[in-house]
Amino acid sequence: MTNGLQKLRSLSAEVADLRHAADLLEWDERVYMPDRGATTHGEMLATLRRIAHEKFASAEMGDAIETARAEAAGLGDGGAAERLVEVTARDYDKAIKVPAAFVAEYAEAVSASQQAWGQARAQSDFSAFKPFLERIVALKRRYVAFFPPAEHPYDVLLDDFEPSMKTAEVRAIFEALRSRQVELIRALGAAPSTDDSFLRVPYAEADMLAFAVEVITAFGFDWSRGRQDKSLHPFATAIGADDVRITTRWVEGMPLSLLFGTMHETGHALYEQGVKPEHHRSALEGGASLGIHESQSRLWENLVGRSLPFWQLFYPRLQARFPSQLSGVSLEQFYRAINKVQPSLIRVEADEATYNLHVMLRVELEIALIEGTISVTDLPERWNAGMREYLGLTPPDAARGVLQDIHWSAGLFGYFATYTLGNVIAAQLWRRFEEVHPERDADIRRGEFRPLLEWLRRELHQHGREYRPTQLVHRITGSSVDPDPYLRYLEEKYGRMAAGRLN
Predict the structure, then answer these.
(1) What are the residue ranges of helices labelled H in 275-416?
(2) Tens of pLDDT along 115-133?
(3) 162 annotated active-site
(4) What is the pLDDT of residues 370-421, one digit of tens each?
(5) Which of 11, 144, 286, 371 has its CA 20 to 30 Å from the CA of residue 218?
(6) Are 259 and 208 in contact (CB under 8 A)?
């Protein structure tokens, strides 16, 4: 490796270490921190984020990028060094536009906001969270102002999670999805209701957790490089590829929420654990985008975890753990119950057919907040109105309405659209894998998940951030991001079920 690239890697590694330390603090804040530790954590996070930003946005880093750029061009290594320089330079060009003082202020505000959200959600009291969210929204608007005017101010925030994607593109994808999904939901709503009462009786949390651990171990989660804990809202955090942490939560009356949430976060973790080691402590570690990341969580949670082949293998095992709840329930009854389409209040518990409508509502509200066409004060009313329009439901309280997600308290404006992008991309990957590996369903039925994981590792995971998300999707599937495979997946799956068939 040349001196310029060595310098770039050395500087980037220091920045990565500081960011990982901050990530670890945030994980602790959401998992183990005592209530009164919020101020101390906020101060530590502000310092770490500020120092990391100052180091990354330094003139020394800028010089190292330029030197490495010139050296990388002549290496002939297949472009690996050039991709490292390109991604680092792209991040650097964004970072130098944002003052370090703002980064520190923002980190402290987010820390306080997340704690306030947790308490407000527990009490279903939006007014207690409102001033914290108002501060976050004001900070996001200030952040947008650091950058040159975009086609839409929301583009700046979206780019942090889905590089180069525009608000107009997201709206176009939503439009392509909305009409066909609404039509599907209406058709399914006319069918006889599915009995899922056996999923509402008491289950033992410890037994369900043990079953979830059995499942994700079979998927390939590496426990020597990962762990699982409980939190108020499930999430995954990578402290590098060799320390990937997932959390789950237990919801009384919804026992399978723990299982599907664990599969979802494991999708994120498998991605992080699969990034090639040479990307560690560089700009290329982690996922290509949040849309690509969500494609992995939604693939393992839904395309695998809600599939018939999966439950042909695992349902007898679940019955054995919960004989009093499931002994008289057939596989077909169970499969229909876990795939029941019914508008619901909570996004993370939503079925596949209605899930995107939850996302669309949140994105529309985010855009309006950043535009300034609505205020934080308007949110509960606008949220409830959107739920009535899209899902025909009115939340009975703020905890099951506007306060249900952690994302806004964490400042993650621009994130929600990636859930729908993840659904779309997951279906494209799923179809492509079946084309190259026709034994896909038979493998899953036998509990052989390695072919799928190895294909994902080879085609997607190992690359980290080497490619832009659209490039990566095209490399694997030969197509741009396309909603049609996802819509066809939903229509075919639920069409079979409506016709009384499972296969």
Answers:
(1) 290-298, 308-321, 323-326, 331-338, 355-371, 379-391
(2) 999 999 999 999 999 999 9
(3) no
(4) 999 999 999 999 999 999 999 999 999 999 999 999 999 999 999 999 999 9
(5) 286
(6) yes
Q: How many beta carbons lie within 10 A of that of residue 447, not counting itself?
A: 14
Radius of gyration of the chain (CA): 23
Could you give the CA distance from residue 235 to residue 224 in angstroms, rounded to a whole number? 19
Distance in angstroms (rounded) separating the CA atoms of residues 503 and 492: 10
> Phi/psi at 271 (nearest 5 deg)?
-60, -50
pLDDT band at 499 (very low <50, low <70, confident <90, very high): confident
* Coil, strand or helix at 344: coil
> b vs e for 116-137, b when ≥16 Cβ sit within 10 Å of the residue's Cβ?
bbbebbeeeebebbbebbebbb
Burial, 312: exposed, middle or buried (Cβ in 10 Å; 0-12, 13-18, 19+)? middle
Q: pTM (2 decimals)? A: 0.94
Q: Out of 29, 86, 162, 265, pick the active-site residue.
A: 265
Measured distance CA(308)–CA(294) in Å, rounded: 22
Cβ neighbours of residue 495 closer than 8 Å, sequence gap 6 or more:
none
Distance, CA of 395 to CA of 493 (rounded, Å): 29
**Hey, what are 269's tokens?**
């973790």
**Domains of the chain (ranges, CATH numbers):** 3-149 (no CATH), 167-498 (1.10.1370.30)
Which residue reads 């036998």 in tokens?
446
Q: Among candidates 406, 17, 82, which has minimal Cα distance to 239?
A: 17
- Cα distance between residue 298 and residue 305, in whole Å: 9
Cα gap 69→3, rounded to integer Å: 12
Q: Cβ distance 413 to 140 under 8 Å? A: yes
